[in-house]
UniProtKB/TrEMBL annotation:
Organism of origin: Caenorhabditis brenneri (Nematode worm)
Matches recorded under SUPFAM superfamilies: Glucocorticoid receptor-like (DNA-binding domain), Nuclear receptor ligand-binding domain
Domain NR LBD as annotated: residue spans: 115-354
InterPro entries: NHR-like_dom_sf, Nucl_hrmn_rcpt_lig-bd, Znf_hrmn_rcpt, Znf_NHR/GATA
Keyword set, alphabetical order: DNA-binding, Metal-binding, Nucleus, Receptor, Transcription, Transcription regulation, Zinc, Zinc-finger
Alphabetized PANTHER family for the sequence: NUCLEAR HORMONE RECEPTOR FAMILY, NUCLEAR HORMONE RECEPTOR FAMILY-RELATED
Sample GO molecular function, one term: sequence-specific DNA binding
PROSITE patterns: NR_LBD
Name recorded for this polypeptide: NR LBD domain-containing protein
Source species, domain of life: Eukaryota
């Protein structure tokens, strides 16, 4: 016998990630709803039957548990056979003549389209930390948003890295070491890409459309704090961290208008620049890195014939900034309630260095 579903605690027919098919179907159905009647805890609705709490509470439980939809529609080559992706592939043809990087571009596009599914569900204008940008409503990220975006980021990074045969063949422990670094790099690039397109103001956007802001810190609750710093100290660390992301990554991403193809090159370089992978697959990673740099150079020169070389240099320099940001990120998990590991689900915790 399976243990019962971690959400409704009733059904034992587990479909995925510890939850039953009914809860999973419910999640798929409602995750796109823009408005939902809020509920004050403890749940007011006294319902008989399954589950015994309201829709709002059920969705909150699922989000807090870090359940994601991708598990069931994970990337594979078959997706490329569908009409939508064939048409898109045609449209993007010629962006690079290297088929390996072209497939990675489509994969990234696929992942970013799925990120839309998580956008702005459950926002009411009256919540704290809600702002309007270009008529749309956005919410300040909560610990569960940080967890969700880490979860999505790590999964996306794994799918991306698995496109390289030399990576696929590594053992689990080695992969873990690589992902501790590359997983964060991967999600920072996706966030920077999104952030650079949203607004010039001091917002840093996560993949699900929630944001971090230097002066907006909601990490203090009445409960026990998992980190040893008081509220003002945490708020100060938060401010420094977000400003670092904005100055070191968002600014160059906006100034250079980094595009999707360049994101793919950056991700590839960061995967093979990960301190660990170089030691295991020397020949293969050398080949990929030099091919990637060459394709990037061809690409930037084609994109801006006059100063393509300068652009190339500036993009390569971004690797250093992103690696610094990875360090700040891990530092943040020890000084801030919002980023503390106790908020993370098992998958995310398992992806972290120990
Ligand atoms: Zn259930
Ligand atoms: Zn409720």
């Amino acid at each position: 016998m399976h243990p019962p579903c971690i959400i409704c605690l009733e059904d034992s027919n587990i479909l995925t990630q510890g939850i039953c098919s009914k809860c999973f179907m419910f999640f798929r159905r409602v995750v796109n709803e823009k408005r939902m009647r809020r509920c004050v805890s403890p749940c007011e609705e006294k319902r008989v039957g399954s589950p015994s709490f309201c829709r709002y509470c059920r969705l909150q439980k699922i989000l807090d548990a870090g359940i994601i939809i991708e598990d069931h529609i994970t990337w594979n080559e078959k997706i490329l056979d569908s009409r939508y992706w064939k048409t898109l592939g045609k449209r993007l043809e010629g962006i690079t003549n290297d088929s390996q990087f072209f497939v990675l571009l489509l994969l990234q596009r696929y992942q970013r389209e799925i990120h839309q599914n998580y956008n702005t569900s459950l926002i009411s204008d009256y919540e704290v930390g809600v702002v309007k940008i270009n008529q749309k409503t956005y919410r300040c990220a909560k610990p569960s948003d940080v967890n969700l975006t880490l979860h999505i980021g790590f999964r996306n990074a794994i799918d991306f890295a698995n496109q390289f045969p030399c990576f696929r063949n590594l053992g689990i422990e080695r992969k873990r070491l690589i992902f501790a670094e590359f997983g964060i790099a991967y999600l920072l690039i996706d966030q920077a890409f999104k952030t650079a397109r949203m607004t010039d103001d001091a917002f840093w956007f996560l993949q699900n459309g929630t944001f971090l802001h230097p002066s907006c810190f909601f990490g203090i609750t009445n409960g026990v704090s998992p980190v040893q710093y008081d509220a003002p100290t945490q708020a100060r660390y938060h401010c420094e961290f977000v400003n670092g992301l904005l100055n070191e990554i968002k600014t160059p991403f906006s100034n250079l208008e980094i595009d999707a193809m360049e994101c793919v090159f950056l991700k590839t370089l960061l995967l093979f620049a990960a301190s660990f992978i170089q030691r295991v697959n020397v020949e293969e990673s050398k080949e990929i890195v030099s091919r990637c740099l060459m394709r990037l150079m061809e690409y930037t020169i084609k994109k801006s014939p006059i100063d393509g070389m300068v652009r190339y240099g500036e993009i390569v320099m971004l690797i250093g900034s992103i690696r610094c940001a990875i360090k700040s990120f891990y530092n943040q998990t020890t000084v801030s309630n919002v980023f503390h590991q106790s908020n993370f689900d098992l998958f995310v915790r398992g992806s972290f260095p120990t």
